[in-house]
Amino acid sequence: MSEPLTLDLLDSDGAIREALDEGMQGTRSELFRKAIVGGGTFLAGGLLIGGLPKVALGAPSAAQDAEILNFALLLEYLESEFYVRAVAGGALSGDVLAFATVVRDHELAHVDFLQTALGSSAIAKPTFDFKGTTANQTSFIATSIVLEDTGVAAYNGQGPRLRKQTLGAAASIVSVEARHAAWIRHLAAAPAYPNAPADYPAPAVLDPALSKAQVEAAVGATGFITG
Amino acid sequence: MPDTLSLDVIDADGAIRETAAAAAGDTRARFLAKAGLLGGGLVGSSALLGLNPATAGAQGKSDIAILNFALTLEYLEAAFYTEAESMGALDGELALFAEVVGAHERAHVKALKAALGSNAVARPRFNFRGTTESASGFAATAQVLEDTGVAAYAGQAPRVKSTAILKAALAIHTVEARHASWIRDINDAPPAPAVFDSPLSMRAVLAAVADTRFIVPARRRRRRRPRRDTPPAPRFTG
Predict the structure, then answer these.
(1) CATH number of the domain within which A227 lies
(2) Given an 8 Å threshold on Cβ–Cβ distance, is A206 in contact with B166?
(3) What's the CATH architecture for B60-216?
(4) B153 close to A (CB below 8 A)
(5) Per-domain residue ranges of chain B
(6) Cβ–Cβ pairs < 8 A, chains A and B
(7) Which of A13, A139, B91, B161 has the fewest Cβ atoms surrounding its Cβ within 10 A?
(8) What pTM was computed for the model?
(9) How far apart are CA A209 and CA A113, in angstroms?
(10) Is A193 in Cβ contact with B182 (below 8 Å)?
(11) pLDDT in tens, B153-192
(12) What is the ipTM for the molecules in this complex?
């Protein structure tokens, strides 16, 4: 793991603080943690995709933040485990191995950050079966593109449902996921881009947002989460 | 033209900043306020987004100021890529990057202008100081512009009040991050250099942009006067 993460690191020039209610007291990381944990008690237990409580279209709240951050944590568990196994498996080389190593460390750090933010409300890490996709470079690349693009769309879908102070943290994660997506897309298809524009690092003018149900269905269809 | 370009390098001793402030004859804050970037005088009609003013729900002057801030950055990026393409100094993947990303930025401009309607700020005048005239200058500058765009959207997202505008901003934000990663990989720079991308406040972004001197003061209107100081071109008589 590269570095311990706190909201202070994310807010080096005070942009997140600008959004915080001036009346609030305490350190920012305390505020963040309180906000997340405050409404999180209903989430106790190891919930999996499909088992998360529905708080559909509710107004932003501490409880809803916790639900969304657990959803994000699940995706980060999935991504980090995928890269851990791919790097350890020895099937990758060159630029693709360098990509997988850096991104593995990023996703592990995102997991750590979300677990810390959620405290005792954090869901447990599921078990995974990547169906052989980490065992050769071609399937690794194809799977990585799907996971990273889905991560971007998932965060973008949840952003408007978060309270502002939590959105600031999520915004600092989602652009890193987008960087990952563009990076692996570049490695996969440059310079020929046989399926342009669909295989460009930035394939569209606007990135799509996916609802939680859509992401759950997509992840469920992979069969990667086994328990 | 230095090979590598960063905003710090451009104005290492602050001289450019002082010059720019003096040229504007004003403090930077007032300059920016005049430019409409701080929301002054822009409340007007409740212009909205959704990508037209009727559906956006911009809530007051802060959302309009944020949209105009984003629009100014997109004007800058779009003009940079359009000029770079027309200069013809790019080839290979750099040329493709400029073509694809330029089209994205022009579309972002169009979307933000549509959202703002009559509240949209005018397109500034630009001078890219030679950075569009060489592949190395272009590549280094594109990286700085895209990284700054990512940080700017991240800084503003939590401040947006309208849900429709926030959705649009988030959808643009990650596209800017893809651009940044793409040009970084072309440049052999780390595409994703940190675990978290740091946001920048509006003030910090505007200061960085001012330091580039890429945005230049509007042309002064001059009285039309026939030019008498240059002799007429010789007539072709042959």
Answers:
(1) 1.20.1260.10
(2) no
(3) Up-down Bundle (1.20)
(4) yes
(5) 60-216
(6) 171
(7) B91
(8) 0.76
(9) 23
(10) no
(11) 999 999 999 999 999 999 999 999 999 999 999 999 999 9
(12) 0.78
